[in-house]
Design goal:
The chain is α/β, with parallel strands linked by helices. Helices cover about 30% and strands about 20% of the residues. β8 and β9 form a beta hairpin. The protein starts with a strand and ends with a helix. The relative contact order is 0.14.
Length: about 230
């Protein structure tokens, strides 16, 4: 998978070279490249933002530096998907992460200030005719799109074959684990490890019983309880 990231702060993405994702890049499973939007800034002052039409606080990122950054990426691969993290977007979920993990080229555009000129998603969706996803991590506002992009990239790339050491880890985790009928998405049951007694707290006896059927039933019930708490 190829991932391009357009941002004013490429250094935000240094963590992509760490841990499992860093190993995946070394092994050629993922290729992550950052592109500095300031390299396409306009005028003598190298501006990337300006005041909003209609007035209001803050600055808005201009369309032209963004277009100069991502146009060559789309020309290279017209089937790429443009992802714009924004608090006004659709909620990013595990099913969306699963869908995007099956794509071969993702382009993330990180906004700052009061966001990006609204003509950017309009142009690329309706004129350039590529798929544009405006996605939100949740009902809150961040200083920019970089943190959200990091979270999305990690959620997506860990689903790629070869990234996790044990692919079975993906089967019984939160938002993937399903109820017996396969319909209700659950969150992962609580996990424990050695020692069996820690600071007066014991591991549930069922987990040391060796009765795998009873353990499976206990874990499913615990997953249901946790899922209900989130509703």
């Amino acid at each position: 998978m190829k991932i391009d990231i357009a941002t004013l702060f490429p250094e935000y993405f240094d963590p992509l070279s760490l841990s499992l994702l860093g190993k995946a890049q070394t092994e050629g499973i993922v290729q992550c490249t950052t592109h500095n939007l300031r390299e396409h800034a306009l005028g003598v002052h190298k501006s990337v933002d300006d005041t909003p039409y209609g007035g209001g606080a803050g600055m808005v990122m201009m369309a032209e530096p963004i277009a100069h950054t991502i146009d060559p990426l789309i020309q290279e691969n017209p089937t790429a998907i443009l992802i714009i993290p924004t608090p006004s977007g659709e909620k990013f979920t595990q099913p969306i992460a699963e869908k995007l993990s099956r794509e071969n080229h993702l382009i993330f555009l990180c906004g700052r200030y009061e966001g990006i000129d609204a003509r950017i998603p309009e142009y690329y969706r309706n004129v350039a005719q590529i798929e544009v996803l405006e996605l939100s991590l949740g009902d809150y506002v961040l200083a920019g799109g970089e943190v959200a992009t990091l979270a999305m990239i990690e959620a997506i790339t860990r689903l790629l074959p070869g990234v996790l050491g044990n692919p079975e880890s993906l089967v019984e985790e939160s938002h993937v684990l399903r109820d017996e009928d396969g319909q209700e998405a659950l969150v992962e049951y609580p996990n424990y490890t050695k020692p069996p007694l820690w600071r007066g707290l014991e591991v549930p006896e069922i987990l040391t019983s060796g009765n795998h059927g009873a353990i499976a039933r206990w874990r499913l019930e615990q997953a249901r309880v946790r899922a209900r708490r989130l509703k």
